[in-house]
Design brief:
It contains 7 helices and 7 strands. By secondary structure, the chain is α/β, with parallel strands linked by helices. The longest helix is centred in the N-terminal third of the chain and has 18 residues. The chain starts with a helix and ends with a strand.
Amino acid sequence: MTMMDRIQRAMVIAPHPDDEVLGCGGTIARLVAMGRHVEVVVATQGMPPRFDAAQVAQVQAEARSAHTLLGVAQTHFLEFPAAALDQIPCAELNAGIAKVVSACGPDTLFVPFVGDLHFDHKLVFDAAMVAARPLGDHYPRRIMAYETVSETNWAAPYIAPSFQPNVFVDITDHLDTKLSAFKCFASQVRAFPNERSLETLRALAMIRGSCVSKRAAEAFTLIREVA
């Protein structure tokens, strides 16, 4: 039995809309194909004056379309301020994420990597770890950190924690679904050689796959597993 066989209820926590597809889109599609329950939490929302209402509505609509394509059972938009999480009390963010984790009761959490360049990612990682504290009998048994192009790989080498994956999920049969889901984010897709391009996502999946003799994979760092 593989790790994927042991996952029954998964939750992907994304700092911003599209992070969940960039990091876990193929894994989500594979879990859904296996008949598993997957929910997504989008922690932040753009706020004026930096983001206008039309832009926010567009990105959320894109996320819903992507999640429908992937088969996500439920999407939670928490509406904390994007690019401003450092301006709200940590306890407030912790409580917001803990509430949805408790309501879903996932056995597996997928979280952003703590060393990502964007501070929203760091703060969401910390809040997810607070929500997943192994207290009592009901907590996520498995926590995995995903990589996000243009965030995970842009942190300062030798200073910030480096992403060193030790779990690889074969997404050979689901890579095209992941790419189609990212296409839903018309406002976020960029032309190659920008990292947030379809070509880059395909290339990264092929590189991660080749590390384990698969045609395509997503890579993760296992934070904790309770067997």
